[in-house]
Fold:
Amino acid sequence: MKKITLVLTLALASAASFSQVHQHIHKNDSEPNLCGETVETNRLMADYPEYAAMQEEEDETFQAAYEHYLESWSPDDRSLYVIPVVVHIVHLGGAENISDEQVFSGIEQMNLDFNMENPDVGSTIPEFADIVGNCDIEFRLATKDPSGDCHSGITRTYSETTYDVGNSGPSNHPIVDAVEEEHGTWPQNKYMNIFVCADPNGNGGYTFRPTNWFPASRMYGSIFLRSDYMGIIGTSNTGRRHTLSHEAGHWLNLSHPWGNNNNPGNPASCGIDDGVADTPNTIGWDNCSDVYGETCSSLDNVQNIMDYSYCSTMFSEGQAARVQTALLGATGQRYKLSTPTNLASTGTDGPGDVCEAIFSSDLRSICAGSTVTFTDNSYHSVTSRTWNFEGGSPATSTSENPSITYDTPGVYEVSLEVSGGGGSESTSDENYIVVLPNPGTTIPYSEGFETLSDLPDYSRFIVENEVEDVTWELTTSAASTGSKSAFLGNYGVSNGSKDALTSGTIDLSGVDEDDDIVFNFKYAYKRKSSENDEWIRFYISDDCGETWALRKNIHGDDLGPTVSGSEFTAEAGDWKQVNITNIFPDYYVSTFRYKIEFENDNGNNIFIDDINLYPASMASLMDESNDFGVKVYPNPLEGQATLELIAKAGQDYNVTLHNALGETIAVVHNGALVDGKNQIQWATDNLAKGIYILRIESDGQIQTIKLVKD
Structure:
């Protein structure tokens, strides 16, 4: 047996230079440290001498146990060990929020590697092919949570801690704390916890070798993996297929073949050992230029999964024995994981029964004539399924991923029933699919929210609520004109999430390509404090919302220079107009849509009102100043209509009705009005169905109101 150099030796040697090493950890770099196991371990050792002392003692105890295990262990032994796994995806709604399928891919690759079934194992050079090790470990996603309830084995947490800053003690790690706060604790003596995030402290991944320093009943000794290093699909690729296995190797007490440091290629590493007899001393490889390379006077095991070569194919037999020693050992209470009692309590003693019906789709809002692809995400062991698609064609399906076409505008229910394991579960969502008209509503387009009774109404507006907290709603507490506006109760909301107010379809297909589009809206907002940096983003779409193009950003002082420490409610002088001047002819389509998105930062409430869209050729008709407090009802028009407006004594008011082409078709009033509120009534029975514009002009000021006759 070769001499082992303990982690403590390296830690003490590198403590003085640790600050230099730590500077190389950078947020969300496209080229992270490949593995941060030794970097993170050394950082904790430098900060906590008691951890270093404990690790030295644990290393000595483990090495003795490993050598004892080797005395009776045979590479041909076949005792399969099952490890329950739960994957915690921590995200901000970006690419790091990987799919379930990518998680499954990562678990599958790990199982292939630890059972000598990986397709590239046959590429191992002959000199090492005879000692390829079968670790005999199966990693299974848990089907029960710590309370014994049905679970998918995957959690999702919206949190800025997706930019992980690492441990700062045995019981302090922000990314872990965020998950525990939302999903509870999944004890590491019951589950292997894998945290998937945008940036694990500048590394492709990292973990800690078994230690009693982390409380076994908590989650601080987990694996932390960058999202694009999970599996081989989605955001990852086949070149990263062994990354999770590499970190799992560390989690089961394997070192790098060149020993306990993060510096492959350093000649000094020839004198450092990994404690495994059949892995030759090496300085390590960060490339695969020579699988027959020799760096320490003997043939290197360049293709070892614990190396950095990126042409990995194998664990060795000695490494297989070492991970089994760790799995059976008391350190970190790893031995509890594979016990029959724990497998039963985590639901990993079998495939699990169907316990929840759940589905998703690639789109939620579409235009008439479009197709939606659905996915059955139910768990576990689904053997049959029955879908029902209100308004869709086909109306039913038994497929796992059916594609359904919707031809008629409306809001439709989707339901799913799944069976398996002697049971069945069902679910439904009555407002799941929104089908919008094609072509959309005609122009000129104006929206003052006066005729809406609720948000969303699934026709004129859909709301997007990223984390299912506060969202856009209708309010009568403030308005630029009239009595209603759209309102987001954002006071003190600090999770960095985005909430969007998304329009229905608008028909711009008849606009001349030489004509410009005028688009404006008003908002009212005050910051809660000067530190707030909240955003309005304005998007447009030319394909019914399948893709979006950013057209305007407003944030910081530009959004709201005034600070209001109390909860903000808009008053008359608080409204600002936003003008969008970059809607180009490529977007003159029949399914044009727009989106107003707000991103929070512990700030204040925001209000939206008076949205207008029309060709510049209609500018003389649509020019407005909105000072008359106008209200028209009923709208849509039927029978007799009533116009309410606030007038000033001594001024004449010219009220005219125009069709969608801008032609004057009626004079509703022309002359003076009394001071204060006035009501003007006129008959609308003779009007044809369509869109109309009511224009009020007085003393050089103009206001327009969009009316509809059904």
User: Anything to note?
Assistant: The chain has twelve helices and 35 strands. The chain has four domains: 7-346, 359-436, 445-617, 631-709. Residues 631-709 form a domain with the Immunoglobulin-like fold (CATH 2.60.40.1930). The longest helix spans residues 49-72.
